[in-house]
Amino acid sequence: MDPNKVLCHNPDCPARGKKGRGNIRVHSLKQRRYICNVCGKTFTESQGTVFYRLRYPAEFVTQMITLLAYACPIAAIVAAFGIDERTVASWQRRAGLHCQKVHEHLVQQPRDLGQVQADEIRVKHQGGIVWMAMALCVSTRLWLGGVVSACRDGNLITRLIQQVRRCALCRPLLFCTDGFKGYASAIQNVFRTPIFTGKLGRPQLRMWDNICIVQVVKEYSSKRVVGVIRRITQGTQKQVQLLLHKTQNTAQAHVAYIERLNGTFRSRIVALIRRGRCLLRQSETLQQAMYLVGTVYNFCAPHRSLRKVLYLADNSKHWIPCTPAMASGITDHIWTVQELLSYQVPLPPWEPPKHRGRPSKRIKELTNQWVT
Ligand SMILES: [Zn+2]
């Protein structure tokens, strides 16, 4: 047990979410519990992870969730291991919600994206169709997030672009999308910053500079692609060529990377397999499965095109595997699925209680020690 690797989960604790600051010590080796010196609360080792209050061992649950993240049907796990299907479904739900928190905490941080490709998948479920829109950073192959909705409309695209905005620094950025009309207006609405002038009223919103949008529309004949039309909806040809040159090998705009990612998701989420019989009942299940597969893809699965070559002394090649999260600088190693499921997402920093008058000496001390 290492107190420097855990953090306090008490929402009322001033030291909440702080790791390695000396406020945590071991409370019980037998029960594997820690205690926080600041708030005096004890908590178990697995709090904040997928394994909190589960009766099955963590290694076993990890194996089952790994199977689920690689498209093993729940019915197969039930038949092979004799576990109740509701238990397996609850693990999948827990893992999906946990991965969503990890994704929002680690991936949705501002970074220079260069080029983003976005696309939607049509998903058949029991009683209808839902749409799953996703976005990818081309240079690092990082999955930036996805949204599930009953309609393929402007609201779906706006929610997706808002996720991309959380991942983006204000740098030149190229969007390559399909021909859906909603993209241009959604990008123009979301990528704006308020300009505060000190006057009363809502500040004026100014769009980010150097945002380019290219829409790639394929022409089909007898279900075969016979031509591709590229429309520059925003930006100049020169800006687009510069960003394409910076982020990919070819000079033509395309959406091949996000379509390849769609293929990965289709092969790893059993409900997305075409003409399959494992249809979903609820769109929440699809969202949870999407976050599980997307986070495993980002952190745990080495990407072949990201690997780096190392020349040894005898001039032979040694390939170093790399994941999208490593290429983006989020981590320095390939995570195991257990590491991902055990990652404790810290709570946002504590805020002193609001009341009239000057804050007390004790509150000032706590704020100085733990918030600043
Ligand atoms: Zn505490």
Q: What are the bound molecules?
A: zinc ion
Strand content: 15-25%
End-to-end span in angstroms? 28 Å
**N-to-C SSE series?**
EEEHHHEEEHEHEEEEHHHEEHHH
Largest sheet: 6 strands, mixed
Helix content range of the residues, please?
Answer: 25-40%
| Separate helix tally | 11
Number of DSSP strands? 13
How is this structure best described in words?
This protein has 372 residues and is of the alpha+beta class. Helix content is 34%, strand content 23%. The chain has eleven helices and 13 strands. α4 (154-167) packs across α5. It starts with 23 loop residues before the first strand and ends with a helix. The mean pLDDT is 90. Zinc ion (ZN) binds at residues 8, 10, 13, 15, 36, 38-39, 41.
Summarize the model shown.
By secondary structure, this protein is an alpha+beta fold.
Question: Topology, please?
Answer:
Elements: E1 24-28, E2 33-36, E3 42-44, H1 58-69, H2 74-81, H3 85-107, E4 115-125, E5 128-137, E6 142-149, H4 154-167, E7 173-177, H5 182-190, E8 192-195, E9 204-207, E10 211-221, E11 224-234, H6 237-247, H7 256-268, H8 283-299, E12 308-311, E13 317-320, H9 324-327, H10 337-342, H11 361-371
Parallel strand pairs: 4-7, 7-10
Antiparallel strand pairs: 1-2, 2-3, 4-5, 5-6, 8-9, 10-11, 12-13
Bound molecules: zinc ion (ZN).
